Amino acid sequence: MKSVQPITLGCSKNRVDTEHILSSLEGHYEIVPEGEERDFVDYLLVNTCGFIGDAKEESIQTILECVRMKQEGKAGAVYVFGCLSQRYSSEMPELIPEVDAWFGATDFTPLLKAFGVSGDGRPGRYLTTPGHYAFLKISEGCDRRCSYCAIPHIRGRHVSVPMEDLVAEASALADRGVKELIVIAQDTTYYGLDLYHRRALAELLQKLSEIEGIEWIRIHYSYPDDFPEDVLDQMADNPKVCRYMDIPLQHISDKVLSNMRRHVDSAWTRELILKMRERVPGVVLRTTMIVGHPGEGEQEFEELLDFVKEARFERLGAFKYSEEEGTYGAAHFKDEVPEETKQSRYDELMTLQSGISLSFNQSRIGSTVKVIVDDFVDGVFVCRSEFESPEVDGEILVKYSPDDFGGVEPYSFVGDFMDVMITAADEYDLIGEPIFEK
């Protein structure tokens, strides 16, 4: 049996695509886990990201590394698909002719055909996450036309996955031991508009929560415009829906938001954040900001800093604006903010957020939380609560003591829940001690 080793770059949505493809290959090929060193693999399968400049550079460097492995006799062939391959379908084969085959980002039939396998890469899943959590992609594409984003050009218009298909997929995952679902899409709050002519995310959350075995459901990639408020009811009242919301806001200045074509203004954004905190007590908000977008002067950047101080997001990431061909921003604005200014603004924003994150984490000392054990490393359980999402947030570290756990093999706890008291914290991670029933 020939071997295939996947390499997935970019977001969790790409990871789901890889898992669908691997599911079709499983049984026909040996799947070599990503990162595992082998003397030789027959196929290196690279899923690329083409969102912004840094991501494109990483994808190209990864492809070149795979080509080098092929030339050194460590790989038989290199297949490339995903966003970068889709976006530059004519340029990439000329740029890197050593790649054996290039494929797109949405139609996987040609890729599977090249492997001699029939199908379109759906609906099965070969999990590349730990077995107790999985990402659930509820739609593809995006109808938004934000100035900086090339995703609609790469992935096309928004297409929701039928609710019954998602429930079936989630049920199959639960049957395999998945306890946590991370709901993802280019825009999760848009879900259902094309199929049901209404925003149906809250209804989907309710149906997913009824699946036996699913204990946590968390939401990522929510757009603030016309946010469906019944989702907040699910977060407040449904014990399986985590009080955690990933909602990329990108900026707060009305001028910059208008240039970004975000269809919201400062007042709307502030009202939405206030509403979330009032209706879902204890909610943890993760957001993303962009610095250096055309139209962002010193005044607009100071407004952004003031807003972050005011809103005190528990989690915040940032990007430096990258002019992307084919986007509204590239066609209508000059990339006028110097790179060194973008970097200094990025550094200042993240330094501010570091202090806010530290303060939030320290406020949790002495509290008791339910955590799920993701891993056991060097005598320590690596855990998360409902307030930490895998791969993007910090962790809760719990030291293993054979006496405390009755000598039970520690790896047997991976994927299980336990109660933990938080005893210490830094800006990223927390330290906890297990709580046992007396």
Automatic annotation (TrEMBL):
PROSITE patterns: MTTASE_N, MTTASE_RADICAL, RADICAL_SAM, TRAM. Its EC number is 2.8.4.4. Its cofactor is [4Fe-4S] cluster. One of its GO terms (cellular component) is cytosol. It is found in: Cytoplasm. Gene3D superfamilies: Methylthiotransferase, N-terminal domain, Nucleic acid-binding proteins, tm_1862 like domain. Keywords: 4Fe-4S, Cytoplasm, Iron, Iron-sulfur, Metal-binding, Ribonucleoprotein, Ribosomal protein, S-adenosyl-L-methionine, Transferase. GO terms for biological process: tRNA modification. Residues 2-120 form the MTTase N-terminal domain. The keyword Cytoplasm applies. It catalyses: L-aspartate(89)-[ribosomal protein uS12]-hydrogen + (sulfur carrier)-SH + AH2 + 2 S-adenosyl-L-methionine = 3-methylsulfanyl-L-aspartate(89)-[ribosomal protein uS12]-hydrogen + (sulfur carrier)-H + 5'-deoxyadenosine + L-methionine + A + S-adenosyl-L-homocysteine + 2 H(+). Binds 2 [4Fe-4S] clusters. One cluster is coordinated with 3 cysteines and an exchangeable S-adenosyl-L-methionine. Residues 128-359 form the Radical SAM core domain. InterPro entries: Elp3/MiaA/NifB-like_rSAM, Methylthiotransferase, Methylthiotransferase_CS, Methylthiotransferase_N, Methylthiotransferase_N_sf, NA-bd_OB-fold, Ribosomal_uS12_MeSTrfase_RimO, rSAM. NCBIfam families: 30S ribosomal protein S12 methylthiotransferase RimO (TIGR01125), MiaB/RimO family radical SAM methylthiotransferase (TIGR00089). Belongs to the methylthiotransferase family. RimO subfamily. This is Ribosomal protein uS12 methylthiotransferase RimO. The gene is rimO.
